[in-house]
Amino acid sequence: MGGVPLGNEFAVVTDKEAFATIEAAWSAGVRYYDVSPWYGLGLAERRFGNFLHTRNRDEYVLSSKVGKLLKASRHNHGKEYFPFSPSPNDVVFDYTADGVRRSIEDSLQRLGVDALDMVFVHDLSPDNPFLPTPWEEQFEIARSGAFPALTHLREEGMIKGWGLGVNRPEPILRLLEVADPDICLLASQYSLIDHKYALDTVFPAARTKGVSFVVGSSLNAGFISGSARYNYGKDNYRIPPAFLQKRERLREVAARHGVDLRTAALQFSAAPDVAAALIVGASTEQQIVADYSSLQTKIPGEFWADLQDLGLIERSAPTPA
Predict the structure, then answer these.
(1) Taking CA atoms, which of 51, 113, 178, 275 is between 20 and 30 Å from 244?
(2) Beta bridge partners of 163
(3) pLDDT band, residue 235 (cuts 50/70/90)
(4) Which helix (DSSP H) or strand (DSSP E) does residue 106 occupy?
C-alpha cells in the first residue's frame, strides 16, 4: 500500500477515513507499506505510523524516502505543494550523508517505529521542478553523500536495502553505473499504458547488477481505472491524446473478455521477474480491498494474447500465468 493518497495529494482524506483504509489493508493481508516525508509533508507518515506502531514490527515491511527534510514554520509554504494537507512544514532538499541520517531519524519519529526496511532516495530526477539546482548537480551530491551513507547503513544492518524512487529512468540508469543499490521504486515507468522503455532498457540494466524493483505505476495514479489525471504533478490533468486512445482500446478488449481493466493493470505490473513488489495508493477501504482482491483473480490467457496481437502491449512483456 502506497502513501500518496493518505498524504492528501489529490483530495481531502480525513483521519478517520485514512485509519479505516490502513486497517482494511492490514485485515486483507497487506504487509508492505511505502511512505515518504513528501506525502502531505509528514501527514502520510504520521497516519501510517499511528496504525503500524501498534503492530509487531517483524510482521510487515516498511519503506520511506530521503532527500527532503521537513521544517515546521509558522509561515510555511506547504499549501503550494499540497493544497489539501494541513501540514505546518516547509521542505528543504538535502541529498548529503548528514541529510540522509537526519531524514531517517525524522521519519522514524513521525512513524513511531524503530527501523525502516528499505530507503529510497526520492525524486532525484529531471522531472522534479522543485530541486534547487539541476538534477545532475543534485545527483552528484547524492553520489558522494546519500549513496555511500545508505550503503554503510545497509552494511551495519540498520536497513535492508536502498535505491532511488523516481518517475524517470535516467537517474536509475546512472545509479547502476556509480553505486550498488538493491532495489528501486519505479513510480511512473511500468504500466499497461507505458512500458516499452523499461522492458528494453531499464530492466536489462538492472538484471546485470542484481537490482529489483518496486512497481508503483500500475494504474498511473488512477488513470487506468478511470481517473481524469495521469501520474503526478500540477499538470497531470493534461493527458496526451494517445494515452486516452490507448485506455479506450484497452477497455474495449477487456470488455470482450469480461476482464476488469484495473485488475489486469495490477497483474501486468507485478509480472516481470525483476518486480519484487507492487504498491498501489488507496484513499478508501473499498479501494484497497478491491486492489488486493484483484491479485487473486484469474485472467484468461486469450486476453493477454489479444493485447499483444493488437500491439497494445509489447510481445516481450511478461504476462501473468
Answers:
(1) 275
(2) 120
(3) confident
(4) helix 97-111
Give the span between the Cα atoms of 268 and 191, in whole angstroms.
Answer: 7
User: Residue 264: CB partners within 8 Å, gap ≥ 6?
Assistant: 192, 250, 254, 299, 303
Angle of CA points 310, 312, 315, to nearest 5°: 85
**Grid coordinates belonging to 65:** 524516502
Q: Is the pTM of this model over 0.85?
A: yes
Among the listed residues 39, 190, 230, 292, the single catalytic one is: 39
The residue with cell 500491439 is 311
Closest CA to 95 of 164, 159, 194, 28: 164
In this prediction, residues 54-58 reach a mean pLDDT of: 96
pLDDT value for 312: 97
pLDDT greater than 90 at residue 29: yes
Can 39 be counted among the known catalytic residues?
yes
